[in-house]
Amino acid sequence: MMEEQARIMQALSGVTLAGHSVQGGMGLPPPHGHEGTDGDGRKQDIGDILHQIMTITDQSLDEAQAKKHGLNCHRMKPALFSVLCEIKEKTGLSIRGAQEQDPPDPQLMRLDNMLLAEGVSGPEKGGGSAAAAAAAAAAGGGADSSIEHSDYRAKLTQIRQIYHTELEKYEQACNEFTTHVMNLLREQSRTRPISPKEIERMVGIIHRKFSSIQMQLKQSTCEAVMILRSRFLDARRKRRNFSKQATEILNEYFYSHLSNPYPSEEAKEELAKKCSITVSQVSNWFGNKRIRYKKNIGKFQEEANLYAAKTAVTATHAVAAAIHNSQANSPTTPNSGSSASFSLPNSGDMFMNMQSLNGASYQGAQVGDNVQSQGDTIRHAISQTVGYNDGLRHPMYSPHSLNGNGGWHGAPTPSSVTSPNEGPGSVHSDTSN
DNA sequence: GGCGATGATTGTAA
DNA sequence: TTACAATCATCGCC
After folding, report:
1. Where is the Homeobox domain (predicted)?
2. A354-359 average pLDDT score
3. Which of A84, A226, A238, A358: disulfide with A193, CB 3.0–4.6 Å?
4. Gap from A189 CA to B13 C1', in Å?
5. From the alpha carbon of A295, which nucleotide's C1' atom is closest?
6. What residues are paired with A402 via a beta bridge?
7. CA A382 – CA A416 distance, rounded (Å)
8. Nucleotide nearest to A247 (CA to C1')
9. Mean pLDDT across the stretch A395-424?
10. Which of A23, A33, A40, A41 is closest to A83 using CA atoms?
11. Which residues pair with A408 in a beta bridge?
């Protein structure tokens, strides 16, 4: 302490009070009757003031108060404080100042980015987030998943609210504390040398402290979001059986394309839309179905018969309707949206193909797979309904399209969905190849 | 609780 | 990338 005092005294003794005219010309009267007309006199003057400042703690309270008041009123005080501030700037504070130039914290940036991506920070978008929407889309888009999705969104909104409330609190506290400290320092600057720069620096320190608290808040929020997200994703992992209707649609497609049960991307998309599941779920379903069908054809016989009959009934109705339309000389009249809604040309093709398939020329490799698959269905359905039996290995149904290795022939995938349930406007011809 | 059915995942091959 | 095959994990029925 004494060393510091000596250093300051020494510094002051030789200093030119930059920016403050303590040298000749000011005409300042000596504080204690000293005649300070030359440099030595002024030095002595400043020395006295400093001595009084340094020894103020040794005095009684009243004495100190009186001295303090005297010093405060001293006309040299601003200049002296200015010099002290300058010295402070040039010594310790400048070192601290260099340390303050922190680069942006990468961790904080990561946290900010994540909070923004999750929809916690940034502009509110209906309380949800893109991540939640994507997660919900991946979940399959069913009713259950939308319940989970809304639950996820509600929880995320809760996190968001807590985050913003806490953030607001921190900011308010930071501002209050900053104002308080600034006032305090301004107040103190009357009795000790504090430059505006120093106040500014102090404000910076306070802000940094508060931003570190904010970072903790952000980190906690991120953790909460991660936990919520993982729980949500875990919930999605739970297997849920598809709806009966969805399974029927998929089965109908499968058995009506048995010779080539590989739906194209478009077909998958259409099936996904119809079944309210995702395309990947359609792919999974077909993958599972193919393998399980192949492994145990016998087991699926009944199912195949069922769907074939269903398809045939639908087709028969369509044909009947078409014939009726034809007889009524109104071939372009569409069906009125009933289940028997195949268009005439398609149904006609099916029957023609079926007739050709009854003959000896029935070769999967020779006939377009889609045509063949429709032939499968119709022939099978007819066999079931009218006792048709072509003497194939399986009395009711034959997986003739499976090759020797138990795999399907590598036929091109159909371009679109052909479902017996489709309306007149949405029938896609599988015979187009 | 056992068991079959079924949707999802993973590793591999083409 | 896609399909296959094996496997896992859960569902739903008994």
Report:
1. 233-296
2. 33
3. A84
4. 80
5. C5
6. A408
7. 25
8. B6
9. 46
10. A23
11. A402
